[in-house]
Amino acid sequence: MVLNSLDKMIELQKNTANIRNICILAHVDHGKTTLADCLISSNGIISSRLAGKLRYLDSREDEQVRGITMKSSAISLHYAIGGDEYLVNLIDSPGHVDFSSEVSTAVRICDGCLIVVDAVEGVCPQTQAVLRQAWLENIRPALVINKIDRLIVELKFTPHEAYSHLKNILEQINALTGTLFTCKVLEERAERASEPQAKPNPEQGEQVYDWSAGLEHADDSQLYFSPDQGNVVFTSAVDGWGFGIEHFAKIYSQKIGIKKEVLLKTLWGDYYINMKAKKIMKADQAKGKKPLFVQLILENIWSLYDAVLKRDKEKIDKIVTSLGLKLGAREARHADPKVQINAICSQWLPVSQAVLGMVCRKLPSPLDITAERVEKLMCTGSQTFDALPPETQALKAAFMKCGSEDTAPVIIFVSKMFAVDAKALPQNKPRPLTQEEIAQRRERARQRHAEKLAATQGPPAAGGALEASAQGEETKGDEHLVGSAALKPLPEEGTGDECFIAFARVFSGVARRGKRMFVLGPKYSPVGFLQRVPSGFSTPPDGLPPVPHLACCTLESLYLLMGRELQGLEEVHPGNVLGIGGLQDFVLKSATLCSSPSCPPFVPLSFEATPIVRVAVEPKHPSEMPQLVRGMKLLNQADPCVQVLIQETGEHVLVTAGEVHLQRCLDDLTERFAKIEISVSEPIIPFRETITKPPKVDMVNEEIGRQQKVAVIHQTREDQSKIPEGIQVDPEGLVTLTTPNKLAVLSVRAMPLPEEVTQILEENSDLIRSMEQLTSSLSDGRNAQTIHQKTQEKISEFRGKLEQHLTGRKWRGVVDQIWSFGPRKCGPNILVNKTEGFQNSVWTGPAVKVSGEASRYRDLGNSIVSGFQLATLSGPMCEEPVMGVCFLLEKWDLSKLEEQGASEKHDQEQRDVVPEGQGGAAACPGSGEDRGPQDGGSEPSEKTPPKGESSLTDCYGPLSGQLIATMKEACRYALQVKPQRLMAAMYTCDIMATGDVLGRVYAVLSKREGRVLQEEMKEGTDMFTVKAVLPVAESFGFADEIRKRTSGLASPQLVFSHWEVIPSDPFWVPTTEEEYLHFGEKADAENPARKRRGLAGRR
């Protein structure tokens, strides 16, 4: 196929029904980029001989070196089938778990996806992850089983064994899909069950319970992958062939004389053909019969491979002639059999026809977007579609219609920003000269030559010649300037050598160059806008009143994404993927652009991998700090997953998803964005602090309390030194603290939360955040936001889960008394208010028994919560966040404050009687200092503190500040009197390895304190999958070490999983005779918890 012109692509973009936006998803090394190469070569963009070797969409140097894709990149392909012409916007995505955020950005702007599975390795962990991502975004998948050649060449399967193996892979994938479907149906049924039912009929005698799960009526016929449905293709991308069973059904229907429809149903499955009767029968009627798929398809492919690998020239010639193909002399003579196979198969079963044909027939166009997906995209957080304003709900029709009329609202979603070299932009490329320009330049060159000759011929004309030559030089200079201006205009994106292009898709309306658009931030709410601006407004975007999280921008330039190249466009019709220039000042990572501000921002992208690996970076030469800061800002914008922080210590910190991701970010920083030499710290290991129940046995498994204590008990000494004077601690761990001015007393106790509760709190952090916003708006007296029915149900379900797990005497009534969550008001710690006078709960908001004290208690209550937030943000052991702890505020005594308030009121009354200028000054309680003259009666009455705030400020500062500090200290001491533990971040580690290197894998894991959870053999292969957990602290260099030790036969995938308590006590020292005997007097054997504490403390 010849290379298509830009005009042809623009014409194809206008027919929305024939556009297919697809992405290729798979586990790492399953052949995504090789498959993409084969599809690209069908358009003549690259040579078919280079397909699979070039890896065209891996445009970065490090992608080519490592052999893995690190970013998602798009290309537009043209495909014609049966008189229809299609535009396929193909996006290749990474399979490595560190770059799973790039998969999220690709999936959001597609309507369908190709799930690629390696025929040998089968379903891998990342295959499951990408299938789940596709399911959550409501996009339709199709299956490509790749690397079938490995079954022939490596595993040496017979066709029948290969058929069984492929059937097994299909069953595994369909089981995964079925699990996702079942979960969805059961969730919907649970939602319906929780909705209020209509009143039952009083005449009905007994109530009938519905035992059905809802799965009986749910239609899942279109859901599963099956070759007879046409959504499965078998390929070998590296050898350039692939087929769906339609291709063979068409051929054999003519040869055998059986209808094509019958063959389509029976070519896959346990059917065999009775050649005498020319009938297709079920295989179980006669044992030992070959299924049709084996007999008619696989055996032919196997015999071709067999002939070529054995160099049977006669057989090869026979096959080539019978298939009506042409084999070039070069390929026929070539020493490598793979070249011959590629030459024959790419003509016989071209992979591009099989895959693109399936894409165009089976995957949806932008017009087929489902209502469910639109509603999901428009509802952020815990909102529901019905709760959105009517103007916003009206946009759903525009989404579904994908209209390109002028009246249709323009809606564009930017899924990521990517950096390109300014020279790669179409407007900055040197364009070829036209014939007229060449003629003009030739004429100028002739003139200059003539002038030079005239100047050298004789002195009489020297003056004139000099003048002429000066003019010539001048024009030459002008021409040079004009030429350079024409060839190299200043990069419009304004960031030096790197320009940012937005990777986006038009969902509705036509995007035109120069059009003004609204940029909606993730926190923007159309409700707020519609309240501020009257309905039916017709002001230009710049004339609107300022609305939070709403900005205006211009679409400066539009680009067609062609892999490594960009082509300039004037307008883009709906349903297309495009690049937009000039948005780098408005969009950080992703955003929604809309011509109407009543559109809500799209729901944020969900990332599978959590950024967990932190390093501090600094320039080698301190004078280059501004370049580093600017470079990190650009890096933050260019990578969807990376986080850039400045610590309180002033360190610049990069947070990345894993080692490979970290290396890529550092390379980008030094070579592209900052362009300076940088120093990188050792990885900063994250920890959490927690407390546990007191242990029952000591370090040598002796029961505590029965051993013979010897020498000086170090532990109790250390415990005593922890708690300073003036703090009361009772035997059960209740810590009582007084504020510096001795007016308020707080008593706090810390208790470890059950693991299940900590997990529930982590999972529901978004819900907790929305509850927090609601209670804060209630307590501020603002109009409460309307809570939708579903949100209320979620909150009550969350509360129910907490009550279910917090049972027993000590947790009685705790859930109702939860005052706040922390840190950052949505973390995995709880503050419980058990005081008598003031009740405040996250479920209901503040409630005070004595109404007169309402405002004072409420204001001071915020200080208590702030102290709790600070204490949970940095624990006492090594300033790391606290996790899984419940703080009970058991006493909050303000009686002295009230007494002082009463005495001050009495003094004030007396001062009003005393003549002016003779007012006394009250002494600061607990100190000999005098208060300032401003407390005297000479000040006018407006200056006196408002009621409820008298005496709240003294020489120790405001009482609210003192309460924050006191509460923080009380929480920290409450933690210190309990057995403290560190929690380490853990990775789940999936390793695929052959049986002969399994021992080495286990050796590397045990050396790094890993724990194997499960090991199973892949059926029909010699591959094992090992599932283990590994501390993040021990993971650096793990992948390289495993590859070295196993000679590249095992490769791990690390994904952050959970936090795990390190069981040993970081403060432990031997105290009993047995412990002294076992550990020695110094106990200098390495304590893992102390080692980790050292790692955290060193910072």
From TrEMBL:
<feature type="compositionally biased region" description="Basic and acidic residues">
    <location>
        <begin position="899"/>
        <end position="914"/>
    </location>
</feature>
<dbReference type="InterPro" id="IPR000795">
    <property type="entry name" value="T_Tr_GTP-bd_dom"/>
</dbReference>
<dbReference type="InterPro" id="IPR041095">
    <property type="entry name" value="EFG_II"/>
</dbReference>
<keyword id="KW-0378">Hydrolase</keyword>
<dbReference type="GO" id="GO:1990904">
    <property type="term" value="C:ribonucleoprotein complex"/>
</dbReference>
<dbReference type="InterPro" id="IPR035647">
    <property type="entry name" value="EFG_III/V"/>
</dbReference>
<protein>
    <recommendedName>
        <fullName>Elongation factor-like 1</fullName>
    </recommendedName>
</protein>
<dbReference type="GO" id="GO:0042256">
    <property type="term" value="P:cytosolic ribosome assembly"/>
</dbReference>
<keyword id="KW-0342">GTP-binding</keyword>
<feature type="region of interest" description="Disordered">
    <location>
        <begin position="440"/>
        <end position="479"/>
    </location>
</feature>
<dbReference type="GO" id="GO:0005829">
    <property type="term" value="C:cytosol"/>
</dbReference>
<dbReference type="GO" id="GO:0005525">
    <property type="term" value="F:GTP binding"/>
</dbReference>
<dbReference type="InterPro" id="IPR000640">
    <property type="entry name" value="EFG_V-like"/>
</dbReference>
<dbReference type="Pfam" id="PF00679">
    <property type="entry name" value="EFG_C"/>
</dbReference>
<feature type="compositionally biased region" description="Basic and acidic residues">
    <location>
        <begin position="440"/>
        <end position="452"/>
    </location>
</feature>
<dbReference type="InterPro" id="IPR056752">
    <property type="entry name" value="EFL1"/>
</dbReference>
<keyword id="KW-0690">Ribosome biogenesis</keyword>
<feature type="region of interest" description="Disordered">
    <location>
        <begin position="899"/>
        <end position="954"/>
    </location>
</feature>
<feature type="domain" description="Tr-type G">
    <location>
        <begin position="17"/>
        <end position="272"/>
    </location>
</feature>
<dbReference type="Pfam" id="PF25118">
    <property type="entry name" value="EFL1"/>
</dbReference>
<dbReference type="InterPro" id="IPR014721">
    <property type="entry name" value="Ribsml_uS5_D2-typ_fold_subgr"/>
</dbReference>
<dbReference type="InterPro" id="IPR020568">
    <property type="entry name" value="Ribosomal_Su5_D2-typ_SF"/>
</dbReference>
<keyword id="KW-0547">Nucleotide-binding</keyword>
<dbReference type="InterPro" id="IPR009000">
    <property type="entry name" value="Transl_B-barrel_sf"/>
</dbReference>
<dbReference type="Pfam" id="PF14492">
    <property type="entry name" value="EFG_III"/>
</dbReference>
<dbReference type="GO" id="GO:0043022">
    <property type="term" value="F:ribosome binding"/>
</dbReference>
<dbReference type="Pfam" id="PF00009">
    <property type="entry name" value="GTP_EFTU"/>
</dbReference>
<dbReference type="InterPro" id="IPR027417">
    <property type="entry name" value="P-loop_NTPase"/>
</dbReference>
<dbReference type="InterPro" id="IPR005225">
    <property type="entry name" value="Small_GTP-bd"/>
</dbReference>
<dbReference type="GO" id="GO:0003924">
    <property type="term" value="F:GTPase activity"/>
</dbReference>
